[in-house]
Specification:
Keywords: Cell membrane, Membrane, Transmembrane, Transmembrane helix. By secondary structure, the chain is an alpha+beta fold. Helices cover 33% and strands 9% of the residues. Among the domains are: 1-39 and 118-127, no CATH class; 143-326, no CATH class. The strands form 3 sheets. It has a 3-stranded antiparallel beta sheet with strand order 1-2-3, with no helix packed on it. It has a two-stranded parallel ribbon with strand order 4-7. It has a two-stranded antiparallel ribbon with strand order 5-6. Helix 3 runs antiparallel to helix 5. The two termini are 42 Å apart.
């Protein structure tokens, strides 16, 4: 790709124009609103080098145009117009530092360390060339130096916790579930009798017992209270339930690696746990909990569930060795 000589908006300073001679920028910039002259700008006088004090080890002063003191027509390695360099051959894919040809240092941060190759400081790409960007996806964030927990690990930890809460409900709610089954025994028995006898009558089934509605409310209240008592205190103290400890995942605040505290842990649980009370409404609560549980799959880059967003928390994977926690590219403060 070759760019014709002429006056163009300077990519390094959009408020000015400079003259592109087909190989590089030359001359002094002019305001972008000013009418450029015909042809290239007049050549600038070469600066007179200041005399250096004579010393026994002093050598001759470097002439203008050398890399230590570039002259007006100096071209830089990697800049369009450099001998043997064609426009479009800037050393491959632009590096993360913003200069084509620049290789990232070991830390992987854009422009951190390393040698600045490409266009000289204060310059930019020729007119019409796009600015370089990240070559692909940026690295994933590591909150407080820890990798984010995978959805599979979070889901498995949640299943373990649900199993523990279910066992608690068997002991605490077992009697009320038995009483509820007795209240619904009459309509259920009639339903199965009609199925076995292939009875096609349209008569309504007998109603459930008078205490069926109250028992459902009691069961849901106890189940919600048991879940609250199991999860909130352990999350407030250490950011982990029993399931999270087994899977080595932990919930931490976004802003600091610190305990959640009771208030944040309660806000986090409310979004997922309180809809249990709405199971009575045609399973609406169960639908809300399903949406919340699947929401990390669609959140980027921190993979936060809806209850994480409300409490401003993020779930990370704990290191197995101290080296796993070393800061790496993409760390989030």
């Amino acid at each position: 790709m070759s760019v014709a000589p002429g006056w163009y908006v300077d990519p390094a300073d959009p408020e000015t124009r400079r003259y592109w001679d087909g190989e590089g920028w030359i001359g002094t910039p002019i305001p972008v609103d000013a009418t450029p002259p015909e042809g290239p700008p007049p050549p600038e006088p070469e600066p007179t080098p200041e005399p250096e004090p004579a010393t026994p080890a002093a050598g001759p002063a470097a002439p203008a145009g050398t890399p230590s003191e570039p002259g007006p027509a100096t071209t830089w390695p990697g800049q369009p117009g450099h001998p043997g360099q064609q426009p479009g051959q800037f050393g491959g894919t632009p590096g993360p530092g913003g200069h084509p040809g620049q290789q990232p240092d070991q830390s992987g941060w854009p422009g951190a360390g390393g040698q600045q190759a490409g266009w000289p400081p204060g310059s930019g790409p020729p007119p019409g060339w796009p600015y370089p960007t990240w070559p692909g996806q940026p690295p994933p964030p590591r909150p407080h130096g820890l990798p984010l927990a995978s959805f599979g690990a979070r889901f498995a930890a949640r299943l373990i916790d649900f199993g523990i809460v279910f066992v608690l409900n068997v002991f605490v709610n077992g009697f009320f579930v038995y009483r509820l089954a007795q209240e619904y025994a009459t309509p259920l028995n009639e339903f199965w009798r009609r199925v076995e006898a292939q009875d096609t009558t349209t008569d309504p089934l007998p109603p459930a017992g008078d205490q069926a509605g109250s028992l459902v409310v009691v069961i849901l209240l106890l189940a919600t209270a048991l879940w609250l008592a199991y999860e909130v205190p352990s999350m407030a103290a250490g950011g982990q339930t029993f399931g999270k400890r087994l899977l080595r995942v932990k919930a931490v605040p976004v802003e600091a690696d610190a305990p959640l505290g009771f208030g944040r842990a309660l806000r986090r649980w409310n979004t997922l746990g309180l809809p249990t009370l709405l199971w009575y409404c045609c399973g609406l609560g169960l639908l809300l909990q399903l949406i919340d549980s699947l929401s990390p799959l669609f959140d980027h880059p921190l993979r936060q569930a809806l209850h994480d967003k409300r409490a401003q928390t993020v779930v990370v994977r704990l290191p197995r060795t101290p080296d796993d926690r070393a800061d790496t590219p993409g760390d989030t403060p």
